[in-house]
């Protein structure tokens, strides 16, 4: 069972209230002990007073002592009742005052917490910039600002490295591909073993080229600025992606059922959104069994436009499916395959969806296969791009 969560404000309130109550109880105890110190009765004989007998004097003294004892008891009872009422009232006041003081003490921490939650990988340039005296709270805010600055520098260095490395590696790949083409184009007969080796090298070079392209697309989706936004229909993009892959669908004898709602419009970068849907369709075709099925649907629910792609196949483990949105993650036996994709397809989809304030949801279907659902904000205006 979960432990009861006690906020810091409640703990401070209880601490302040308990300390005030303890000091009040000690003060009241001391006051009552002083009041209970007893009452001394003095016997004074006034000069010129008429003589009284001993018995009459004793009776008179006993009567006075009884009256004094009753008066003292009544005063003590009133003192105790008043003390109890005052203690109860001050207990309520101490709790209220403790809560107010605790709120004022913790207010800077709440501001820091709220500002830190707003800062993510997409807006690391923001800072807390806490104002106020140089105390522990400001030291904490300055420390977080320093951490954000280091994170921003690290993310920027990572983006530059991925982009520069991908661009630099394209040049030797192009040179290698051109050298292969020149060697194979010579008029002399090429041995079959050499031709097979050249074809294999071309395949590997194409795989590396796709991998670099995936790196660039992933870096752009995760940290790039979406400047060229336009309004697009998810249904039309999905239909175009299916038409472009009609040959692959026929080669696998796949049954495609498309329920595209032309009202599912969203706004974003056209190149990235087209690549996102292409990757989802490619994943549905590549990782489908021969004679399988693909069900595609686009819908609009409130302020959300949704694209859902379902495929048939074997039963999948949901824990493994949850990791597919991470780079270089594959399912089971697919991890050992080197010629089928780079393991970046769905991670690119998730990154592009997140860059457009959307999300990718992957679910293992109970009857087998995978369900990929992309949710994006609905465009305010529907103008064909």
UniProtKB/TrEMBL annotation:
CDD domains in alphabetical order: HAMP, HisKA
PROSITE patterns named in the record: HAMP, HIS_KIN
Gene3D superfamilies documented for this protein: 1.10.287.130, 6.10.340.10, Histidine kinase-like ATPase, C-terminal domain
Signal sequence residues: none
Entry annotated with the keyword Endoplasmic reticulum: no
The EC number(s) this enzyme carries: 2.7.13.3
Catalytic activity: ATP + protein L-histidine = ADP + protein N-phospho-L-histidine
Regions that span the bilayer: 12-34, 79-102
SMART domains given in the database record: HAMP (SM00304), HATPase_c (SM00387), HisKA (SM00388)
Alphabetized UniProt keyword annotations: Kinase, Membrane, Phosphoprotein, Transferase, Transmembrane, Transmembrane helix, Two-component regulatory system
EC main group: transferase
Main location: membrane
Membrane topology recorded in Swiss-Prot or TrEMBL: Multi-pass membrane protein
Keyword Nucleus: no
InterPro entries in the record: HAMP_dom, HATPase_C_sf, HATPase_dom, His_kinase_dom, HisK_dim/P_dom, HisK_dim/P_sf, TCS_sensor_his_kinase
UniProt domain Histidine kinase: residue ranges: 164-380
Domain HAMP: 103-156
GO MF, one example: kinase activity
Subcellular location as annotated: Cell membrane; Membrane
Protein name per the record: histidine kinase
Species this chain originates from: Nonomuraea insulae
Lineage: Bacteria, Bacillati, Actinomycetota, Actinomycetes, Streptosporangiales
């Amino acid at each position: 069972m979960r432990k009861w969560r006690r906020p810091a404000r409640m703990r401070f309130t209880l601490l302040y209230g308990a300390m005030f109550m303890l000091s009040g109880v000690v003060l009241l105890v001391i006051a009552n002990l002083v009041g209970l110190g007893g009452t001394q009765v003095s016997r004074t004989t006034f000069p010129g007073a008429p003589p009284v007998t001993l018995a009459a004097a004793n009776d008179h003294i006993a009567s006075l002592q009884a009256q004094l004892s009753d008066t003292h008891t009544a005063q003590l009872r009133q003192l105790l009742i008043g003390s109890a009422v005052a203690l109860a009232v001050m207990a309520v006041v101490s709790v209220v005052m403790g809560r107010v003081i605790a709120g004022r003490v913790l207010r800077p921490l709440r501001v820091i917490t709220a500002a830190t939650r707003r800062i993510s990988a997409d807006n690391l340039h923001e800072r807390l910039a806490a104002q106020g005296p140089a105390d522990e709270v400001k030291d904490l805010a300055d420390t977080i600002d320093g951490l954000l600055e280091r994170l921003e520098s690290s993310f920027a260095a990572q983006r530059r490295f991925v982009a520069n490395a991908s661009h630099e590696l394209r040049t030797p790949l192009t040179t290698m591909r051109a050298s292969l083409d020149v060697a194979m184009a010579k008029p002399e007969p090429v041995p079959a073993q050499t031709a097979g080796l050249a074809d294999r090298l071309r395949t590997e070079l194409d795989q590396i080229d796709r991998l670099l392209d995936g790196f660039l697309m992933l870096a752009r989706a995760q940290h790039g600025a979406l400047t060229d936004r336009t309004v697009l229909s998810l249904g039309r993009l999905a239909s175009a992606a299916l038409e472009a892959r009609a040959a692959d669908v026929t080669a696998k004898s796949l049954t495609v059922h498309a329920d595209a709602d032309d009202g599912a419009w969203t706004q974003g970068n056209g190149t990235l959104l087209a690549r996102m849907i292409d990757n989802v369709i490619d994943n549905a075709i590549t990782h489908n069994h021969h004679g399988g099925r693909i069900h595609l649907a686009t819908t609009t629910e409130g302020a959300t436009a949704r694209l859902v792609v379902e495929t048939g196949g074997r039963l999948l483990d949901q824990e493994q499916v949850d990791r597919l949105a991470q780079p270089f993650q594959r399912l089971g036996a697919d991890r050992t395959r080197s010629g089928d994709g780079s393991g970046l397809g769905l991670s690119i989809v998730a990154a592009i969806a997140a860059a457009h304030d959307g999300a990718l949801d992957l679910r293992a279907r109970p009857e087998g296969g995978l369900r990929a659902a992309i949710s994006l904000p609905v465009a305010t205006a529907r103008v064909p791009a």
